[in-house]
Amino acid sequence: MRSRPVRRTRSGQFEIRLSPEERDLLRGLAPRMREVFEDDADPVRGRLFPVAYPEDDDRQTEYRLLVQGELLDSHLAALAILEETVDAERLDEDALLGWMRSLNEVRLVLGVRLEVTEEGDERPTSSDDPRTPAYAVYDYLTWLQGEIIEALAR
Predict the structure, then answer these.
(1) Would 12 be classed as within a structural domain?
(2) 10 Å Cβ neighbour count for 109?
């Protein structure tokens, strides 16, 4: 059985125990996410910047003008934390929260791209399916995010 990848220490910091391959995977997330943030035409942005007023275009425009820049800054700050600390063996709570936010954003993007539903019946049934690697990443990020949440709750 694998030991917990994220563990709160007595000092209140969090020990991060990930393999080099896991850290490489996490390291590669930020550049890909930045591409999503930079492409206004990317339909997945709707998941990262949700519509608050679907029935009122004027209010939605006002909301977007007021909030979208702040949301984008928050997303980019979380990615920066992940990038800057991906090789760290210990993180403070703020950095771990940045990791959690980054992983959630990547999961949202992957979920939209893979058309993930609550039923989960869209999952590939064959290892030959070209979506299988993306689902493996999605599942890994879901698991790691869960481990982070548990560590923060302890």
Answers:
(1) no
(2) 21
Please identify which residue in the block is written with the tokens 């990930």: 18
CA distances from 27 to 64, 74, 80, 150 (A): 30, 18, 10, 22
The residue range of the domain holding 30 is 19-153
Q: Are 99 and 85 in contact (CB under 8 A)?
A: yes
- Angle at alpha carbon of residue 11, lines to 5 and 16, rounded to 5°: 15
The three-point CA angle 90-72-13 to 5° equals 15
Q: Is residue 7 part of a domain?
A: no
Q: Is residue 14 domain-resident?
A: no
Confidence of residue 122 (pLDDT cuts 50, 70, 90): confident
The answer as to whether 115 is a domain residue is: yes
Query: 33 CB contacts (<8 Å, ≥6 apart)?
Result: 75, 79, 102, 105, 106, 109
Q: Which residues of 3-34 are buried (b: 16+ CB within 10 A; e: fewer)?
A: eebbebeeeebbbbebeeeeeebbeebbeebe
pLDDT above 70 for 23: yes
Give the Cα separation of 125 and 108 in Å (integer): 22
The domain total for the chain is 1
For residue 154, what pLDDT is reported?
A: 83
Give which of 133, 102, 114 is closest to 30, Cα–Cα. Answer: 102
